[in-house]
Amino acid sequence: MFDVAVIGAGVGGLYSSLVLAERGFRVALIESKSRSRIGDKTCGDAIGLHHLEHIGLSLPDDIVDHRYRGVKIKSPSEKHEIIVPGEGISVNRVKLGQWLLKNALDHGVELLDEHFLVGVEVRDGRVDSVRVKKIGGGVVEVRARFYIDASGAKPALRSKLPPEWPISERPLTTDFNIAYREVVDLEDSIDSEDIPYAVIYLNQVVAPGGYWWMFPKNSSGTVVNVGLGVINNGVYNPRHNYEKYLRGRFKGRLVHAGGGIVPTRRPMPTLVWSNVGTVGDAAYTVNPVHGGGIGSTLEAANIMSTHLSRVLEEGEPTTENMWEVNLKYLEAYGVKQAGLDVLRMYLQKLSNEDFEWIIRNRLVDGSAVYEIGVKGSLADRVVSAVSTMIKLLGRPSLLNELRIVRNYMNKVMSLYRDEYPRGPAGIEEWMAKVEALFSEYSRVIDFDRGEKVKW
Taking phi first (over 0 means left), then psi (-120 to 50 degrees means alpha), and beta for anything else, what does residue 136 get? Predict the structure, then answer.
């Protein structure tokens, strides 16, 4: 019998396991990969330093490949750009995963690698046990007082829970982007002016409903992480687009390649229910606009495991005594996420001509984009600052669209910040309000949200 069983050894599962084990709890970490491959995940590898500062986590130097002074956002023609300030790092994902794993094992975490979750036993409104199957072996039953689903965008545990539990909510297809990326040791260095930045390219031909990126991985600009994400609507294939538009631009030795699905939406309506919690991609604790999730996943894992450790010391976890996890996460990141989900849907409808016009005419500068990213709102300051310019430049329809987006961002953020229930009793009514508001917004901007996913 474990105190906690964690499903998935990504950064969320690893950090949750480590924090709980440091506090003396018996933790089982269940992962489908082999021990040596833990940390091997396809992503952009970038983390904003503010996330690490929030949780007080200091990474060893050998994990950090490169340091950024900000983000460059380039127009479709690549003739115009916005520089957004903010320090960040590029990490070696395998080294990060292996470092977190070693720390977790050193503190007593029991690793069940090469094990897949195949079943869940629910009794009296609680998860009593999970069944996991070893690759090439038999099925093992694992029992714990609490279970954390950190298994990724297609959650292994949440998808097997009773559908009436709010933590089982199924998302829509367009709540995700599908991505493909390669790490390349280049024949020639990139432009020296781009080396200090994570570079994002807005181009609806190359990356429909998303963007493509080029993140330097070393100070000489000879190793880069290049990839793209496209909206998950069944139309586009990111690898095909990479082959067609990007491979010829980044010639060199292939270091790593892969793809995956990325949640780009607001967080789960609740991160806890009964004796189950969820963090990371499984909980959609990801920035909806740029898809970055390492930092926010670490923050969610820290909130979840820190609060859970206090609850376990006092007794058995319940929906009620774990509810504070939701309140703390919304305060730390979730309210902003919800607002950015509104903005994300609008951005996915813009054309290359729209993006070119906005960036060329500098309707927003780096500080304004930074404010939107930090606060999650299309602030009145931003709208008022561009309104006169838009009128002078002859795009009054764009101003009206921005006002609509700002209005719905404010409504959604108020719903998450001011009306989120203080306990589980009101969650279903609140969820209905959220769905009604997003459905209304989708109709107003004519956004097709797709269908519910099958998992």
Answer: left
Query: How many angstroms from the chain centroid is the CA of residue 324?
Result: 21
Bridge-based pairing state of the strands 115-123 and 81-91: unpaired
Read off the pLDDT of residues 294-336 as tens digits, 9 standing for 90 and up. 999 999 999 999 999 999 999 999 999 999 999 999 999 999 9
Domain that holds residue 9: 2-45+95-170+268-322
Other beta carbons within 10 angstroms of residue 309's beta carbon come to 18
Structure tokens at 26: 């018996």
Give 411: exposed, middle or buried? Use CB within 10 Å, 0-12, 13-18, 19+.
Answer: middle
Asked if 2 and 143 touch (Cβ cutoff 8 Å), the reply is yes
Q: State the alpha helices, DSSP H only, in 107-248.
A: 238-241
By the 10 Å C-beta count (0-12 exposed, 13-18 middle, 19+ buried), 339 is classed as buried
**Last residue within a domain, chosen from 263, 281, 304:** 263
Kindly report the pTM of this predicted structure. Answer: 0.95
Query: Is the pLDDT assigned to residue 384 strictly greater than 70?
Result: no
d(CA 284, CA 34): 25
| Pair 296, 403 in one domain | no
Report whether pLDDT(370) > 70. no
Do both 275 and 286 map to the same domain?
yes
Rounded Cα distance between 18 and 92, Å, is: 19
CA distance 275 to 297: 20
Mean pLDDT, the chain, as a whole number? 94
pLDDT of residue 23: 97
